[in-house]
# Entry
Amino acid sequence: MGNMSIRVKICCINSVQEAELAVRYGASALGLVSEMPSGPGVISEEKIREIAGTVPPGVASFLLTSKIDVLAIIRQQRYCRCNTIQLVDMLPPFSHLRLKEALPGISIVQVVHVTDKESVEQAVKAADLVDAILLDSGNPNKAIKELGGTGRVHNWDLSREIVESVTKPVYLAGGLNPDNAAKAVEYVKPFGLDVCSGLRTDGKLDEEQVKRFMAQVGY
# Structure
């Protein structure tokens, strides 16, 4: 493809070694997953802080948080020291503004779980409040919330519509792997791809899969 402009975020990083592997192959962002109601990749805040401290300049460290209380999110970020907060759930009104005021210089990324046409409206509204949008395949309405890491592909027609409707960067997540990465870039035209389970074998980041995935998107 030769498309060097697409960003790749490798999520569910669980060790300094995995972080180094991801960066070595060109990942521009790493996802560090804090406590979640469900899904893979959760590590302790101590481990997140340790890994974030090794991430080189120019690479974004994403703190994935399921918290919706602003003060709790601020405390978590200040301890973990990631440079980006990924909000996997919807926050009460004015929360994004309060986060921005309390954490200058920290990027805020809002996850929108793409389920139907309402997701498009949700993304358009959220885009005004944050630095970027991330489209995933969870279901926040389940009894035990699914807030990401499902390994499922969602409706890319809706994702493409969102990309075309907002001016902020959009990351595409959900069921991505080395076999569909190039197609995702070509069809949805996102700012970046976000991948977790599609690069893992027996729970571990698989160097061969990382290499294949990055080659598919031009690295």
